[in-house]
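Progress note, sequence design subtask.
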């Protein structure tokens, strides 16, 4: 079995486990009695903690095997979900949860990118496509699993499932045929266009983070509906990746496809029919994956001699601090529709940032 296939098993299982929490976190917090402002503060703290955690974790890989760090990450992440399931509604508990959740989440995300870069072969576009397909299968399964378990069983059972899946996900990583990178961490210059892309694309992450809450508040106040919407997006995303990712010249067409994607996002904010929203969700899934393909290519487009760990530290700091800043602005705006409209404007601007073709590593 090739490295990329082993990595894809890891990404499938870990995506299921982690998206059980990540897809529904805003809705679950709202159901617990937290306001939009408090939820945005939660995200702001979460991403700030993520910037610190990502940096520390990558430095720790010089003395601790990254695979063991992921085992620790799985227990912390699962523990954060269990804490949320039993915590009382208070600001102190929300802050504690955001810190634990941030450590559990971002001790995973930085290493996920690290193992992806190390597992890729010469045909990086093909490998990126397969990674996105497996992650999207996880995105289909996770919301269905949440909807079923929260209705039939309990959040505690869900927390146990998260722990089991997280641990199983790491097993394939121990079989990866890659060399541990213990070289000195160095920071190299990243092009201004690449940084600008990194900054603007975080608006899509904020949009996706708040989308479940928007659906719950304005379209259908059932967690099952939010789960169905995300599953439909996952299905359409897999279709896009499988049939189009190798055939579309995204450097040539991304700008125009991104404009259509933004129009879909605008349309969704101005429609109230829960059935039409599901149809839009199907096409939105296509747009999101088109965006994710380009985003992944932008992240993994590095030269062969790039200091991978130094590069990932810079990338994760940009990602997390920009998201934290966006959420802090949203905290003062305190209107989910305005925040989503502003995110769409930034997503639209991404299409006009110049990018470069994938280089061989």
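Output:
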């Amino acid at each position: 079995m090739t490295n990329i296939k082993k990595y894809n098993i890891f990404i499938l299982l870990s995506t299921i486990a982690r998206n059980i929490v990540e897809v529904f976190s805003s809705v679950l917090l709202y159901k617990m009695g937290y306001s939009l402002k408090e939820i945005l503060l939660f995200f702001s703290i979460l991403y700030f903690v993520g910037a610190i955690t990502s940096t520390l974790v990558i430095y720790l890989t010089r003395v601790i095997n990254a695979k063991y760090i992921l085992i620790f990450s799985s227990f912390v992440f699962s523990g954060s979900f269990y804490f949320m399931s039993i915590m009382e509604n208070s600001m102190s508990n929300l802050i504690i949860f955001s810190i634990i959740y941030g450590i559990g989440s971002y001790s995973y995300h930085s290493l996920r990118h690290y193992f992806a870069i190390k597992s890729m072969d010469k045909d990086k576009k093909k490998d990126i496509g397969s990674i996105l397909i497996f992650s999207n299968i996880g995105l289909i399964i996770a919301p269905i699993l949440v909807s079923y378990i929260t209705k039939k069983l309990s959040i505690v059972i869900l927390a146990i499932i998260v722990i089991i899946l997280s641990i199983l996900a790491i097993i394939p990583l121990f079989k990866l045929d890659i060399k541990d990178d213990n070289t000195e961490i160095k920071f190299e210059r990243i092009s201004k266009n690449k940084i600008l892309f990194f900054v603007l694309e975080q608006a899509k992450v904020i949009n996706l983070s708040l989308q479940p809450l928007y659906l719950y508040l304005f379209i259908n106040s059932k967690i099952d509906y939010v789960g169905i919407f995300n599953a439909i997006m996952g299905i359409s995303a897999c279709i896009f990746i499988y049939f189009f990712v190798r055939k579309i010249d995204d450097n040539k067409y991304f700008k125009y496809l991104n404009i259509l994607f933004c129009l879909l996002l605008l349309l969704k904010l101005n429609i109230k029919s829960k059935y039409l929203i599901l149809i839009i969700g199907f096409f939105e899934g296509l747009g999101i994956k088109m965006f994710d393909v380009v985003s992944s290519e932008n992240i993994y487009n590095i030269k062969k001699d790039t200091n991978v760990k130094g590069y990932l530290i810079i990338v994760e700091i940009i990602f997390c601090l920009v998201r934290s800043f966006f959420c802090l602005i949203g905290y003062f705006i305190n209107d989910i529709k305005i925040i989503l409209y502003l995110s769409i404007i930034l997503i639209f601007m991404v299409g006009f940032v110049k990018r470069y073709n994938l280089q061989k590593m």
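The longest helix spans residues 91-119. Work on this subtask will continue into the next period as scheduled.
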